[in-house]
Amino acid sequence: MAAPSVLILGATGFIGAPLSRLLKNEHPDWSVTAYVRSVKGATEDALKATLGGVDHLEVGDFSEFDKIKHLSAQHDIVINSGNSATAEPVAAIIAGLRERKAHGSKGKLIHISGAGNFIDFGTSGNFNPSSKVWNDDNEDDIKHINNDMFNGRSDVAVLEAGATGDIDTYIACPSVVYGGSSTGSSGVGVGYSLITGNAKSLGYVPYAGDGTAILSTTHVSDLVDFLVTITNRAAAPQEAEGTAYSRYYLLETGRVQWKALATEFARVLHREDPTAFPASTPRNVTHEEAGEGALRYLITSNMLLEGPRARRAGFEPKGKSILEQMSDDLKGMFI
Ligand SMILES: NC(=O)c1ccc[n+]([C@@H]2O[C@H](COP(=O)([O-])OP(=O)(O)OC[C@H]3O[C@@H](n4cnc5c(N)ncnc54)[C@H](OP(=O)(O)O)[C@@H]3O)[C@@H](O)[C@H]2O)c1
Ligand SMILES: *[C@@H]1O[C@H](CO)[C@@H](O)[C@H](O)[C@H]1NC(C)=O
């Protein structure tokens, strides 16, 4: 591929915006199209500049199957940094990229999933030494991903499409992503939103048991660097190596215990909004008091993963820890 064309879904997001900027910065000659929900009150030119000088904007919603399919068929590489919780829009991307086969060029899909898939559903809030540690070097682990997991339906759709060989697929699976203050993000992303939203509806920041349960975290700069590395690989003329299950990358910058995490959340959220968060310290609660539905599992369980395959493919975690970044990441985000 000489200078490939790339379509990015979710290009204005917490992950998508720094990704668009880094990709254009490294490859000014590549033709990059950002699929955006709206121009957001800016001019098209201003938004293109904000996204690193992307070449084209296409306005549309993730629910517009035909539009996404058509656009995907016209691009060499599609990056989905917008949605992993449902099978759309990735089904439309796959349908579009498959059409390229008839014209003798294989479509490439880079999908961003999330390690919420891999929590152990513990309810104690304690570290569990016998919990499964998911490992991206073990293709059987990746084959165990199923539709009941948080990001299962999109992962399964991508893995199955990749397994047919019709398209080359890559899945980057970060854990909770933080570090937006270092990329100038105007939002906090899905991970922080879930945790802070849960705390806000409870009126306190929860942790359970002795709070030694482990959460995996990924710095957005480490993630975005890796996404560009994978995109470079997808752009190379050679066929993708290995099976689709071997191109699933588990990403982690660091691990944190829930009590330490909740302690910093409580301090920072109280500083930011003392009305919504009257206490500056977290509350030790039962599983039932840790949140609504699936969220209470996130808070009381362990998320254990290892990514030796991602490391070999070029993932190089070097970001500061979430405990060091949170104060800056959440500053001014709730006014
Ligand atoms: N942040 C994390 O902790 C984390 C961790 C693991 C995995 N992930 C996954 O990474 C992906 C991106 O997460 P993020 O934190 O960057 O989220 P985000 O900041 O909310 O960004 C989502 C992006 O998708 C766009 N979008 C949302 N709904 C849309 C719709 N219906 N039609 C068109 N565009 C739409 C948003 O556009 P607007 O700018 O117009 O809203 C934005 O560009 C998600 O799939 C998420 O599950 C995130
Ligand atoms: C939290 O409460 C539980 C149950 O009462 C107790 O076993 C645990 O030691 C407490 N954790 C801390 C860190 O105080």
Summarize the entry for a quick read.
One of its GO terms (cellular component) is cytoplasm. The protein is an alpha/beta fold and 335 residues long.
Task: Tell me the layout of helices and strands.
Blueprint lengths: L4 E5 L6 H11 L4 E6 L7 H7 L5 E4 L5 H9 L3 E4 L9 H10 L8 E5 L21 E2 L3 H5 L8 H13 L3 E7 L1 E3 L10 H14 L3 E3 L5 E6 H16 L12 E4 L2 E4 H15 L10 E3 L7 H8 L4 E2 L1 H5 L9 H8 L6
Helix pairs in contact: 1-8, 3-4, 9-12
The structure holds NADP nicotinamide-adenine-dinucleotide phosphate (NAP) and 2-acetamido-2-deoxy-beta-D-glucopyranose.
Helix content: 25-40%
Radius of gyration: 20 Å
For the record, the count of structural domains works out to 1
Mean pLDDT score: 97
Q: Ligands bound here?
A: NADP nicotinamide-adenine-dinucleotide phosphate, 2-acetamido-2-deoxy-beta-D-glucopyranose
Which stretches are low in confidence, meaning pLDDT under 50 for 5 or more residues running?
A: none
Strand % is: 15-25%
How would a crystallographer describe the biggest sheet? 7 strands, parallel
The CATH class label is Alpha Beta
Strand line-up of the largest beta sheet: 3-2-1-4-5-7-11
**Helix and strand pattern:** EHEHEHEHEEHHEEHEEHEEHEHEHH
**E-strand count:** 14
- The CATH level-2 architecture is identified as 3-Layer(aba) Sandwich
Looking at this structure, what is the CATH superfamily? NAD(P)-binding Rossmann-like Domain
Quaternary organisation: single chain
GO cellular component, one term: cytoplasm
Pfam family, one: Epimerase
Domain NAD-dependent epimerase/dehydratase: 6-236
Protein name: NAD-dependent epimerase/dehydratase domain-containing protein
